[in-house]
Amino acid sequence: MIPLQLLRVKISNKGKSIAPTFCTSDEDVSLAANIIGEFEESWKKRDRKGLLTDRIGLIESEHGDYKLVRGFSTLLERRCKFVNTSEQSTENGIDSADLTIEPDVIRRSLFEESSKSDFALTILRREEIIQSVARQLGVDKEKVRNQMWSDLDENLVVEHFDRITPAILVAWYNFAIIQTLLFSCTTLQVALHGGSSWKRVLRDVKRVGLMYNIRNQPSTLVDRTSKNMIHHDDTIVCSLDGPQSMFKMTEIYGTAIAKLLPSIICAESWSLQAWIIRKSISVGRKMYEFHISKENAPQLMAFPDHNNSKKITAKLGSSFDSTVEEKFAVKFQQFSTGWTLVREPDPIVLDNDKAFIPDFMFERYGCRIYLEIVGFWTLEYIERKIGKLTRIASANKELYKDDKLDIFIAVNNDYYTTSKYKKVEKDLISRLGSLVQKDHLILYKNGQVPLRAIVSYLKSIDQEMVRRIAITAPNGLLAEIDRLIIGTQDNNEDDSRTDGGSGRGIISIGELAEKYNIPSDSVIIALRSREAGNVNVNDNGHSYLVVGTYLISRFKISELEKSLDSISSFMDAIFLFKKYKVPEACHVDLLSKLGYDIIWRGIDSTNASIERRKR
């Protein structure tokens, strides 16, 4: 932060919004470099602070913007250690009694000696008093003369300076002026993404004694038929103020709100809206709005501890609360279910405007399934958990299935401790199970959360969503399927004449699915459905045949059938398929589709043969 009187701000033309003036130009970085150079020179020469201030004053007069120069200087002073000459000598290891006398002791002795007789109205009388005090204290009179005012601010010496680069200084300044502006904040609204970011911010909110409430701010829904679609971009907004703010306009919570800024800008995505009170002689107290987000914040902006901020952010984003969570995450990724595992997703808003942040979220096809892992627990903890689950905002139907929250609760069964509370614990677990779907309550032991129930449920959703997407397939895909399946005979004859050994006449269902951004299985189901629906076209009339995950033209298949009549070796059939650019993944399936069985004679494929099945 910087002193409020050094804050550089801009007021909008309509006088309703306020914004700090950031440093963004190369000129600002060059100015920062010059001021840093003055501090480094003072440190090397052990100059007095007064001399440093004078040199900074020269830069200020040349630059013209005294607020910016003094703002940089104020931040750099916090990276300095200033001492008086006696402290400097002691820290440097000089063991001398006369050098360790504090300046205030010397001044007191001088004033007492002077008050015993006439005041030092002449230079001679002054020297006599100094000499007398030097004898009393047992020090040299030069030390008395040099140290009597050494503890004044302008006489302090730069003992140490913590170096910083110009870019980091500018970034720190940009951060500091936002924080300074928030000192006069009465209310702050914050929007973040990521449960770990919310946990960190809400923890700090409670620590500084602010009140908060959370709400969903709906935004435009995206296409839910997309196979890669995650979820809608509803924004979660947290409003912060103090206990007295509901009764009167007060600025006393500004400092507490400003302390939250480091936690907020740690998030991957953030934005804030603040209401700022500014006083002026002309208009008195007036309220302004202040908006900023990660997207429109200056590129150079960082914490004071810039060197460690990225490490801290990375650690907060990747660490787990327990080994149980870490083991579960590693094991789930090994299953390759196709679902995205999100640790600590965005909070679920409760009906009392508070937040519930599950440990994990499984995400695919626009579906969100949650998992809460309850490790070490007490009766009171389970009661609080039950209270949160019962208060989750029922207005958010996306979270519900069969009128219950679509969330798995994994409870550590090892904490059924004494028989005295066993019945009470079972009742609590039963109540917990009543709040979720059937089979969504998992009891685990030995720190291992079983995945069978979760993976099985996710697969059932996969099947349901694949069928649903196939039914609502894009019109463009359906038209293309119809063209492929019942294409005109003439066009395909032209294709066959130019096909030869090329890969023409073979279409990847995976590429078709990627083109329309839906799952491959949905394309296959749509193909089967369109084939069955074309009752006026017999099987031989279809232009393409589905073989595994590919569509192969009937004319290419006719050529293959003619060549296979004279082939009996399995490997010869494979070489034929390769010649016609048939993908290896569908070789065996194609043989079966063409009415051939593979006769194996051991594990060596070179000894295998093919034989046409009897019709």
Relevant terms:
elongated; 45% helix; 4 domains; alpha+beta; Trna Endonuclease, Chain: A, domain 1; 23 strands; 23 helices; five-stranded mixed β-sheet; 615 residues; single chain; five-stranded antiparallel β-sheet; TATA-Binding Protein
Range of strand content? 15-25%
Order of strands across the main sheet: 6-7-5-8-9
- Overall shape: elongated
What is the distance, rounded to the nearest whole angstrom, between the alpha carbons of the first and last residues? 87 Å
Specify the number of helices: 23
Total number of beta strands: 23
Task: Determine the structural class based on helices, strands and strand pairing.
Answer: alpha+beta
What does this structure look like?
This protein has 615 residues and is an alpha+beta fold. The chain has 4 domains: 158 residues, no CATH class; 127 residues, TATA-Binding Protein, CATH 3.30.310; 141 residues, Trna Endonuclease, Chain: A, domain 1 (3-Layer(aba) Sandwich), CATH 3.40.1350; 140 residues, no CATH class. Helices cover 45% and strands 18% of the residues. The chain has a 5-stranded antiparallel sheet with strand order 6-7-5-8-9. Helix 1 crosses helix 3, helix 5 packs across helix 6 and helix 6 crosses helix 7. The chain is elongated and about 135 Å long. About 9% of the residues have low confidence.
